[in-house]
Amino acid sequence: MKNNNFISKSISQLLNRFGLINYSTNFVHDNPPHENIRVDRITIVGGKDYVKWAYLRCPCGCNEIIMLSLIKGANPSWRIWIDKLGRPTISPSIWRTEGCRSHFIIKSGKLIWAKSTWEN
């Protein structure tokens, strides 16, 4: 099992290096310090059998940290899936209602900008 995790992580890093994915993931047990949150990685707080939060930097360049609840039943909450290649998908879309108002989707590790209905 450890060998499969190593292979999946290595493939994910390779795909990221060549620009085939924008995001990889890592798991931590406690909320990470903000300086540890990277622009190309989704940090998931949780363990083997549970997840609580997902942290990422806003992809627009404003450098704000986005914190998503992954707790089922919380409102709002998101779900995250990680495929065998380590590519994350988050649902529903991520829409910042303050600041830069970025609206985007992360699907199979790729960033997809959504059309926004906000009026400036």
Quick structural overview:
This protein is mainly beta and about 120 residues long. It has one helix at about 1-15, and strands spanning about 25-30, 40-45, 50-55, 65-70, 80, 90-95, 105, 110-115. It has a 4-stranded mixed β-sheet.
Task: Draw up the topology in text.
Elements (H helix, E strand, L loop, with lengths): L1 H16 L6 E5 L12 E6 L4 E7 L7 E5 L9 E4 L5 E8 L7 E5 L2 E4 L7
Parallel strand pairs: 1-2
Antiparallel strand pairs: 2-3, 3-4, 5-6, 6-7, 7-8
Biggest beta sheet attributes: 4 strands, mixed
Q: Segments where pLDDT lies below 50 for 5+ residues?
A: none
Q: Please estimate the helix content.
A: 10-25%
Taking all Cα atoms into account, the compactness measure Rg is 14 Å
What oligomeric state do the depicted chains represent? single chain
> Helices and strands: which structural class?
mainly beta
Order of helices and strands: HEEEEEEEE
Strand-residue proportion? 35-45%
Spatial strand sequence of the major β-sheet: 1-2-3-4
Shape: globular
Number of helices: 1
| Counted beta strands | 8
| Alpha carbon gap, first and last residue | 50 Å
Features:
120 residues; mainly beta; four-stranded mixed sheet; four-stranded antiparallel sheet; 37% strand; globular
Description:
With 120 residues, the protein is mainly β. The protein has a four-stranded mixed beta sheet. A four-stranded antiparallel beta sheet has the order 5-6-7-8, with no helix packed on it. Strand 3 and strand 4 (65-69) form a beta hairpin. It has one helix and eight strands; from the N terminus they run αββββββββ.
